[in-house]
Amino acid sequence: MIGLILALSGWACAGIYLILTGQALGNAIARTNVSFLGDAAVSFVTGLVSWSVLVYAGSLFGIRRPRLLRKKNR
Fold first, then answer.
1. pTM for the model
2. How many C-beta atoms lie closer than 10 Å to residue 7's C-beta?
3. pLDDT exceeds cutoff 70 at 71
4. How far apart are CA 56 and CA 43, in angstroms?
5. Which end of the chain offers a freer environment for a tag, N or C, measured as fewer CB atoms within 10 Å?
6. pLDDT tens digits, residue range 10-53?
7. Beta strands in the chain (DSSP E)
8. Considering just the CA atoms, what is the radius of gyration of the chain in Å?
9. Using H for helix, E for strand and C for coil, what is the string for 28-59?
């Protein structure tokens, strides 16, 4: 149950930060202000890091990781 909650909260955080990134990009285009691009980049990186950490923590409790985070066995 803990792993499922961690994984779902990771996906929720990723969605929230993706929306914030889109808003910052929209403001950068609408207001022609380059400083909003930095805000968008910070928001995107923060969302990516929080998603990967929470999904990895969920995998410690038995939830499978997405393909992006799995190691390939060769």
1. 0.77
2. 23
3. no
4. 20
5. C
6. 889 989 999 999 998 998 889 888 888 888 999 999 999 998 88
7. none
8. 15
9. HHHHCCCHHHHHHHHHHHHHHHHHHHHHHHHH
